[in-house]
Amino acid sequence: MQIGLKILLEINFLAPRAQVVYYNKMISQTILETIFPRFCLNCDREGKLVCDDCLSLIEINDFVYCPFCALPTRLLNGKGVCQKHYGKFLDGLYFAVSYRDKIVKKIIAQFKYEPYLKTLSPVIAFLIISHLIKTKNQEFSRGGENFLLVPAPLTSRKKRNRGYNQAEVIASELASVLPITLSVDCLIKIKETPSQVGLSLTQRQANVQGAFLVKNPEQIAGKKIFLVDDVFTTGATMQECARMLKTSGAKSVRGITLAREPLN
């Protein structure tokens, strides 16, 4: 993570206060890893859950792509979706890496499923922030009261079983670095839904329909929302969340995820 910290400080993407917060977190992490040695989940080297060498092998997206194209279409001039997909509730997506990356798959599997390595969240946040830096979107560095980070919610039962909401953990890491307020209670999940894994797009859309509710619409009225999750697959979940947020007054909704799963 020292490599990542050096990049962040040199580019000066973050405000000075955020740089100090991020630096202190990395120092604390290093101390913990010295006392309780860990092993890289990719190469098994002692020291970190993802060593610097393996981290450097992950290719970060330099550009923003339309989230709804089977083969992602590169976008220009700040557009969030391609012309073919105008009219979607989700206004765009920032995804740091491809889900095809083998190291990324291992990170997501161990973060989201057993053994539930919540401590992978700084690695995930680093990859996302690296992508935001490369896309040179100044909204993330300016921030302000018009922007809001909102994690994709889980039901209470599923959150209790896992021990945490993975989207909320990622969003919290991002909020500790970016000058954007985090809201974890404005969007909630009110209906238990079967796993989306293995379902078609139509089945996924039906599965999540009516599953979400905006609890505090006054928090999101007129705001530009960044909706945070771990992986973007078909977009059914984010589309339904975006629909509810916009219906309740959000000005725009764009997604932020670690990875996007190819649709082809």
From TrEMBL:
<dbReference type="InterPro" id="IPR000836">
    <property type="entry name" value="PRTase_dom"/>
</dbReference>
<protein>
    <recommendedName>
        <fullName>Phosphoribosyltransferase domain-containing protein</fullName>
    </recommendedName>
</protein>
<feature type="domain" description="Phosphoribosyltransferase">
    <location>
        <begin position="167"/>
        <end position="261"/>
    </location>
</feature>
<dbReference type="InterPro" id="IPR051910">
    <property type="entry name" value="ComF/GntX_DNA_util-trans"/>
</dbReference>
<dbReference type="Pfam" id="PF00156">
    <property type="entry name" value="Pribosyltran"/>
</dbReference>
<comment type="similarity">
    <text>Belongs to the ComF/GntX family.</text>
</comment>
<dbReference type="InterPro" id="IPR029057">
    <property type="entry name" value="PRTase-like"/>
</dbReference>
